[in-house]
């Protein structure tokens, strides 16, 4: 594991907010020369601490303005059921995130769809047809006062 120091942490905080910042501006913000900053960023990338860069899309502008968090319980606690469920979620386009969690359910999903009818279809025709699924609870997002996902 790569050791990171306070300067690396400052670099990571800036890059989390703006992955398109120029190296010169990043260096200026964290108090390094451009060459020293570039070396640090490259090392953070090489070590896997920075695993990639991406565009943050406005899903509502793309027609996916309904966000639903869904908890899913499985019928059995067998590896084959877990694998089958995860593969099905990997193929399901509305599923933006799938998290295996501890607690009273096995999974939390973040779903993005255009409207309630589209979610109903996903709920019935995708989740409702999987033999591994024993419980489904849907939580519709009314607002997101803090969301730091990139």
Descriptive labels:
150 residues; alpha+beta; Arc Repressor Mutant, subunit A; Alpha-Beta Plaits; 2 domains; four-stranded antiparallel beta sheet; 4 strands; 20% strand; elongated
Write up this protein.
- The protein is α+β, with helices and mostly antiparallel strands.
- It folds into 2 domains: 6-46, Winged helix-like DNA-binding domain superfamily/Winged helix DNA-binding domain (Arc Repressor Mutant, subunit A, Orthogonal Bundle); 66-140, Alpha-Beta Plaits.
- Helices cover 38% and strands 20% of the residues.
- It contains 5 helices and 4 strands, in the order H-H-H-E-H-E-E-H-E.
- It has a 4-stranded antiparallel β-sheet with strand order 2-3-1-4.
- Helix 1 (6-17) crosses helix 2 (23-30).
């Amino acid at each position: 594991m790569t050791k990171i120091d306070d300067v690396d942490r400052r670099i990571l905080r800036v890059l989390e907010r703006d992955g398109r910042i120029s190296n010169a501006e990043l260096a200026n913000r964290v108090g390094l020369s451009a060459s020293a900053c570039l070396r640090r960023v490259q090392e953070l990338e090489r070590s896997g601490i920075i695993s990639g860069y991406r565009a943050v899309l406005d899903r509502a502008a793309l027609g996916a303005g309904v966000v639903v968090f869904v908890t899913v319980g499985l019928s059995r606690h067998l590896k084959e059921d877990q694998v089958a469920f995860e593969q099905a979620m990997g193929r399901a386009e509305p599923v933006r995130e799938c998290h295996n969690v501890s607690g009273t359910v096995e999974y939390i999903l973040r779903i993005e769809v255009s409207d309630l009818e589209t979610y109903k279809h996903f709920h019935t025709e995708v989740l409702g047809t999987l033999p591994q699924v024993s419980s489904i609870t849907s939580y519709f997002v009314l607002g997101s006062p803090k969301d730091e996902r990139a």
